[in-house]
Please model this.
Amino acid sequence: MQCRQEIDKVFKSGFIGIIGRPNVGKSTLFNAIIGEKISIIADKPQTTRNKITGIKNFPDAQLIFLDTPGIHKAKTPLNRAMVQTAREALTDADILLMLTEADSSIHPQDTFLIETLAQVNIPVFLVINKIDLIEKNLLLPIIDKFRALYNYREIIPVSALKGNGINDLLQTIKNYLPEGPQYFTGDAFTDATERFLAAEFIREQIMLQTSQEIPYVTAVEIDTFREDEEKNLIRISATINVEKESQKAIVIGKKGAMLKKIGTQSRLQMENLFGSRVFLELFVRVKKDWTSNDKMLRELGLLKN
Ligand SMILES: Nc1nc2c(ncn2[C@@H]2O[C@H](COP(=O)(O)OP(=O)(O)O)[C@@H](O)[C@H]2O)c(=O)[nH]1
Ligand SMILES: [Mg+2]
Model:
């Protein structure tokens, strides 16, 4: 009887890195697991730039997920910094989820990632996402192809968008986690600050509302973030950095229409997550060639050393 109670007391915890090439649905899966929208999503590569932590609590376990930028062959300094961030997850994690999407042929960037995984000695699961887009009978051949390339400990098909397979995935992760402490107490679901999340929501709207190069040359800085608890209001002012005057004109739009749209939509996201009213003020500034300048990347928190 006593022995049984001892077993019940075992608490498991650990860090789970979500890696994969751009656009396979890493952030969508991350948000589906955490149950809150904290990682921004767009139908464009390189949406996620920083490593974002999401905490999933169970009575007997704490799963800490790390959403990362996509791992790919990077050419520009900004992209190299993002890939470096993603690679850190390879060493920080207890389990890695390599996310891919259900597709009949293996993408070259998946092959590249698998080569990177050769040096990893923690359990790697293959998570095949977007199964809502394919016929069921196409799944097995996909699984076989991946199995031939790497010794995945588990292969789990999911649809992050529809929520299929997520519970299976969580249960399997729990089985593999080591005994460990509750790293985060209370009901926090992320260690990201509200400031950071506010900047991310603004960047998400830029990704969604603008096209061509604009999403890749914008960085958002929060200048002030003031909470007025009495009024249940947060006052935020933020600056959107771009590289050229012509890009600034696009972000502002005709009579400020684009900037207004970006502001309204991102404010709604903030109000939803923060549970308070938000007063948002946006500015646009030209910071020449910031994506290729290490000093500016550091200033914007996108490069660490
Ligand atoms: N059909 C479908 N689309 C998905 C699914 N998961 C993600 N997506 C879409 O794929 C795109 C990229 O998603 P995102 O999470 O930003 O990918 P990331 O770059 O890997 O983080 C978005 O348009 C998502 O809506 C899924 O399970 N099914
Ligand atoms: Mg992402």
